[in-house]
């Protein structure tokens, strides 16, 4: 493809304007800032990877590696949108086929998001301008409605009973299920929990979740007791991960994978519908919304406050208090909470 041509009348108009301003073309060249030469993908990806959070590295690392495999010796400012679309097509064609897959939409979204992250860093580092960000010129696929939904009490009971009556560590698995049901936390929040994040007197835990967010979440006195005992019995250091195996090693996301595979073997509907810990989050948040309203449910979920959303500007004013969260938890668990209303 050849260089774009300029209309001669446009060039002449620009020349006349510069003359009136007393500026020559050489003045423009001399005064232009010197931009550093853009690095190659092979050189720049490791720099960006080292600068992001572990969560982002986990989410985008695979796609950055694919970019390095494909364009390793090319500069990051040499890739056009068509080449990005070609990479997307290749990733979708070679993705792992899962039963709950949606035609590669997630893979496509992750490729674009990972490259946008890379190019945002390149823009901040002065290697490209925002107008030269090729990843912004590739639209993300429209997200489909989630298939997750709230589970009925009977199904939730089945999951808990199987979790605490099978496997090599039913105590740990039962604690995981109860933690997610009571707090509606994400897996990352559970794995990041530390003994120092337990406020035993007020029955609060500090959840650190995606996007670097922090929030105090109420838990029942019973769950607080279980968490404290677990930390002591499995010798979790105060500032290290709380949830651990019997041998004292911290658990990882793989514990969740093994748990839900085992549950699926004993409860066929779990495997068929691809139930996961995130379904427990949906279940609890839905229950809170139905019984205590949208504002309390949003706070319970730890969702960021937004403006201009589909719920209107009022959402920015109706903030739930810790007292309200504690009352919702008390109703959910049937246990009084220190920060809630006194039982009537």
UniProtKB/TrEMBL annotation:
**Superkingdom, taxonomy of origin:** Bacteria
Question: Species lineage, top-down?
Answer: Bacteria, Bacillati, Actinomycetota, Actinomycetes, Micromonosporales
Q: Which InterPro entries match?
A: DNA_brk_join_enz (IPR011010), Integrase-like_cat_sf (IPR013762), Integrase_catalytic (IPR002104), Integrase_recombinase_N (IPR010998), Tyrosine_recombinase_XerCD (IPR050090)
One GO BP annotation is: DNA integration
Q: Extract the Gene3D superfamilies matched here.
A: 1.10.150.130, Intergrase catalytic core
The alphabetical list of record keywords is: DNA recombination, DNA-binding
Into which family does the record put it?
Answer: Belongs to the 'phage' integrase family.
Recorded protein name is: Site-specific recombinase XerD
Keyword DNA-binding listed: yes
Q: Which CDD domains does UniProt cross-reference here?
A: DNA_BRE_C (cd00397)
Q: Specify the Tyr recombinase domain's residue ranges.
A: 146-330
List the Gene Ontology MF annotations in alphabetical order. DNA binding
One Pfam family assigned to this protein is Phage_integrase
């Amino acid at each position: 493809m050849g260089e774009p041509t300029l209309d001669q009348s446009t060039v002449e108009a620009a020349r006349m304007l510069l003359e009136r301003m007393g500026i020559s073309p050489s003045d423009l060249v001399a005064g232009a800032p010197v931009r550093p030469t853009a690095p190659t993908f092979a050189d720049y990806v490791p720099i960006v990877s080292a600068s992001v959070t572990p969560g982002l590295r986990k989410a985008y690392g695979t796609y950055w590696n694919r970019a390095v495999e494909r364009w390793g010796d090319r500069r990051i400012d040499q890739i056009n949108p068509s080449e990005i679309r070609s990479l997307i097509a290749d990733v979708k064609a070679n993705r792992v086929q899962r039963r709950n897959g949606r035609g590669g939409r997630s893979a496509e979204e992750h490729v674009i998001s990972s490259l946008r992250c890379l190019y945002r860093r390149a823009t901040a580092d002065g290697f490209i301008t925002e107008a030269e960000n090729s990843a912004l010129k590739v639209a993300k696929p429209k997200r489909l409605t989630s298939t997750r939904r709230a589970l009925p009490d009977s199904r939730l009971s089945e999951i808990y009973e199987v979790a605490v009556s099978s496997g090599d560590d039913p105590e740990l698995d039962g604690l995981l299920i109860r933690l997610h049901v009571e707090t509606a936390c994400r897996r990352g929040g559970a794995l990041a929990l530390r003994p120092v994040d337990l406020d035993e007197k007020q029955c609060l835990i500090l959840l650190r979740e995606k996007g670097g967010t922090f929030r105090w979440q109420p838990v029942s006195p019973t769950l607080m007791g279980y968490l404290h005992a677990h930390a002591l019995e499995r010798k979790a250091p105060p500032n290290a991960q709380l949830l651990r195996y019997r041998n004292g090693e911290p658990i990882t996301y793989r514990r969740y994978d093994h748990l839900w595979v085992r549950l699926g073997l004993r409860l066929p509907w779990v495997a068929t519908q691809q139930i996961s810990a995130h379904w427990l989050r949906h279940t609890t948040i839905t229950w809170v919304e139905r019984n205590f309203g949208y504002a309390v449910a949003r706070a319970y979920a730890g969702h960021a406050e937004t403006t201009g959303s589909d719920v209107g500007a009022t959402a920015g004013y109706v903030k739930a208090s810790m007292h309200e969260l504690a009352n919702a938890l008390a109703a959910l668990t049937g246990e009084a909470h220190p920060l809630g209303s006194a039982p009537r």
